[in-house]
Write a structure and sequence with these properties.
The complex is a heterodimer of chains A (112) and B (115). With 112 residues, chain A is mainly beta. Helices cover 0% and strands 54% of the residues of chain A. Chain A has no helices and eleven strands. In chain A, the strands form two sheets. In chain A, strands 2, 4, 5, 9, 10 and 11 form a six-stranded mixed sheet that branches. In chain A, strands 1-3-8-7-6 form a five-stranded antiparallel sheet, with no helix packed on it. The radius of gyration of chain A is 13 Å and the shape is globular. The mean pLDDT of chain A is 93. With 115 residues, chain B is mostly beta strands. Chain B is built from no helices and eleven strands. In chain B, strands 2, 4, 5, 6, 9, 10 and 11 form a seven-stranded mixed sheet that branches. In chain B, strands 1-3-8-7 form a four-stranded antiparallel sheet, with no helix packed on it. Chain B is globular, with a radius of gyration of 13 Å. The N and C termini of chain B lie far apart (37 Å). Classes of the chains: A mainly beta (112), B mainly beta (115). Chains A and B meet through β5, β9 and β10 of A and β4, β5, β9 and β10 of B.
């Protein structure tokens, strides 16, 4: 059973701090990883995708991938109360079947 | 540019009935995906359609079915509804064409309630 695991949280950080969200995956053949943000009652919104080992930065967000450790993370710098949401980590299933395997999500709470 | 659209936004059915959910992908996208998000659970993959064909299916019973039309829009049908089918049903689309690294963009979802 291919799985993506995340700590459910809540992860509570003060405004302006760095929030660090982590995810591990079991599918060694997975080549693509995605971070989605989901506000309560809304649909997932794509934040970033990463395919290669290392870091990828986009504004306040940095995604990190370590394929050897099967580990993906998302750093949010200068966290804002509007960042409070559930963050979903997803991996593309190996085999080219385009199925995304989602983690259960980490709830982030940024307090003023 | 319009994103993925879904209809209806909410749907109330009774046990045993059939539900039909609709999705229009982003213009230029040929792949459509369906996911189920039950309360308190993660997103579970249901179906993937590309170029009118079903390409992959998740671990759901056959009463979950769908199709993709020539204009790439899609329909999800759930027959013989059960109480546990109550969930948010999300449609996503991607460029398609069989690329391995496809980014999926989600629609607003249809919230199905089975009474």
């Amino acid at each position: 059973q291919k799985e993506v695991e995340q700590n459910s949280g809540p992860l509570s950080v003060p405004e302006g701090a760095i929030a660090s969200l982590n995810c591990t995956y079991s599918d060694r053949g997975s080549q693509s990883f995605f971070w989605y943000r989901q506000y309560s009652g809304k649909s997932p919104e794509l934040i970033m995708f990463i395919y290669s080992n290392g870091d990828k930065e986009d504004g306040r967000f940095t995604a990190q991938l370590n394929k050897a450790s099967q580990y993906v993370s998302l750093l949010i710098r200068d966290s804002q109360p509007s960042d409070s949401a559930t963050y979903l980590c997803a991996g593309g299933e190996s085999g080219g079947y385009n199925k995304l395997i989602f983690g259960a999500g980490t709830r982030l709470a940024v307090h003023p | 540019e319009a994103g993925v659209t879904q209809s209806p936004t909410h749907l109330i059915k009774t046990r045993g009935q059939q539900a039909t959910l609709r999705c229009s992908p982003i213009s230029g996208h040929t792949s459509v995906y369906w996911y189920q998000q039950a309360l308190g659970l993660g997103l579970q993959f249901l179906l993937w359609y590309d170029e009118g064909e079903e390409r992959n299916r998740g671990n759901f019973p056959p009463r979950f079915s769908g199709r993709q039309f020539p204009n790439y829009s899609s329909e999800l049908n759930v027959n013989a509804l059960e109480l546990e089918d109550s969930a948010l049903y999300l449609c996503a689309s991607s460029l398609g064409g069989g690329a391995v690294r496809e980014t999926q963009y989600f629609g607003p979802g249809t919230r199905l309630l089975v009474l």
